[in-house]
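User: Please fill in residues for this 472-position structure.
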């Protein structure tokens, strides 16, 4: 479908009718037109910029099905619930679904009753789903990769299926009528120039239109505070909470155990809060989200599993009780605050530089780096034993090894399920150095927003934000 065939007033009418907005934010309309013209597109927009509408609205106006590949069940659940509440025919498939629900959705796909189908990369490549998507009569208009930075962040060491997504379009087109087009669009809030290049290469984007928005948020005040002991970290947190009674906020920690332990301790201090992590059931996650959105729980103690796709405009503060491991995680998570444009605070608590009295941050980073090294060493050994050509093994360790080979340019995917290894030796990866950017950011003596802008490809050497603890 040509975007020119859909008048601007039709786009606005749909926006008003389904979402209740009278005008688009910049550059939503341009992105929607790019997708409607079936142009490959890469979109880097700050958290809260309205990315979802950019692919949901075109899905309604085009014939056929839009596939949305998304990393987290919680994220998919929220988006699909919102769409169904607006009477949009949308569904999600994931491994936790009861068998009868799964069968029902597979039937909806066959009968072409859906406009949007949300699924993880792993579910996309599962036999029952792939078999139905390849049916010649099923019209697929586009493949959307939501939270596309996960392809780079997780694709070769955690979620190897991400590395095969570039094979989806050519494999699907083989089974479709001649002349069929499937556009690919990748959406993310955090992609530095290297990440953008990797996304384009892995997805095999063809002359994509690129939309990049500056991540600067003038209403978001950035602070980093040093804590000297574990007890001092908790006391600093309590002192902050005492100054923000009943304000909506989020406290990020790194592990499930941390979230449960800190939530229990704060409950003992008289605060109403809850631990949120990927280990909870869908019902438990939904209940906590609803209580937080309604204000019954002012703040949640959460891992990175919380926040993606959950829209609460009046979050006044975000605390990183533990410093994140990656700068991209940091940008994602502080972006939950201040979506309504009002002043908000992003506070990170860090151990003093030596880490003698509070070694938790240093131990966490060392554990992450050691785990990464172990994965690469294991992959090196496995890669020597794998056939040079064949079907992707079902075991997780071999899948990781193949993804690592692909990330170093030594492996080619023939289709989603077959590979060829061109070189036997696995080269070292820059990922082994982990992300030292987060440490440089936390210890930076210059404007924090300037550092972030530079890291994500927006160099402004004279910039001083007046909204961080370094230049306020």
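Assistant: Residues filled in for all 472 positions:
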């Amino acid at each position: 479908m040509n975007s020119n065939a859909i008048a601007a007033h039709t786009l606005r009418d749909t926006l008003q009718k389904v979402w209740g907005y009278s005008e688009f934010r910049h550059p939503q309309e341009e992105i929607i037109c790019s997708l409607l013209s079936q142009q490959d597109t890469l979109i880097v927009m700050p958290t809260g910029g309205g990315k979802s509408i950019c692919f949901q609205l075109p899905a309604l106006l085009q014939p056929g099905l839009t596939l949305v590949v998304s990393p987290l069940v919680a994220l998919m659940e929220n988006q699909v619930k919102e769409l169904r509440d607006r009477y949009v025919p949308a569904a999600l498939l994931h491994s936790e679904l009861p068998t009868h629900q799964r069968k029902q959705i597979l039937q909806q796909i066959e009968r072409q009753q859906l406009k949007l189908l949300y699924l993880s990369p792993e579910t996309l490549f599962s036999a029952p789903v792939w078999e139905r998507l390849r049916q010649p009569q099923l019209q697929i208009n586009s493949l959307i990769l939501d939270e596309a930075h996960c392809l780079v962040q997780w694709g070769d060491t955690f979620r190897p299926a991400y590395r095969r997504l570039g094979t989806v379009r050519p494999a699907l087109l083989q089974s479709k009528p001649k002349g069929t087009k499937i556009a690919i669009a990748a959406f993310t809030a955090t992609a530095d120039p290297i990440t953008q290049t990797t996304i384009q290469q892995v997805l095999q984007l063809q002359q994509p239109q690129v939309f990049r928005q500056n991540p600067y948020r003038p209403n978001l005040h950035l602070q980093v505070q040093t804590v000297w002991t574990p007890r001092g970290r908790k006391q600093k947190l309590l002192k902050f909470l005492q100054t923000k009674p009943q304000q909506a906020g989020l406290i990020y920690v790194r592990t499930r155990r941390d979230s449960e332990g800190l939530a229990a301790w704060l409950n003992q201090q008289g605060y109403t809060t809850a631990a949120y992590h990927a280990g909870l059931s869908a019902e438990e996650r939904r209940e906590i989200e609803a209580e937080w959105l309604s204000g019954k729980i002012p703040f949640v103690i959460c891992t990175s599993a919380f926040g993606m796709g959950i829209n609460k405009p009046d979050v006044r503060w975000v605390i990183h009780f533990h410093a994140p491991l990656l700068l991209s995680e940091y940008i994602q998570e502080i972006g939950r605050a201040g979506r309504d444009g009002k002043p908000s605070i992003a506070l990170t608590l860090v151990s003093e530089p030596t880490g003698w009295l509070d070694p938790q941050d240093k131990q966490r980073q060392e554990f992450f780096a050691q785990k990464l090294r172990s994965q690469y060493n294991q992959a090196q050994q496995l890669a020597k034993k794998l056939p040079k050509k064949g079907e992707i093994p079902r075991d997780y360790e071999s899948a990781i090894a193949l993804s690592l080979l692909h990330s170093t340019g030594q492996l080619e995917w023939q289709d989603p399920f077959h590979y060829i290894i061109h070189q036997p030796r696995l080269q070292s990866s820059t990922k082994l150095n982990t992300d030292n950017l987060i440490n440089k950011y936390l210890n930076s003596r210059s404007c924090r927003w300037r550092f972030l802008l530079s890291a994500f490809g927006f160099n402004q050497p004279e910039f001083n934000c007046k909204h961080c603890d370094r230049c306020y």
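For context: The chain is about 40% helix and 15% strand.
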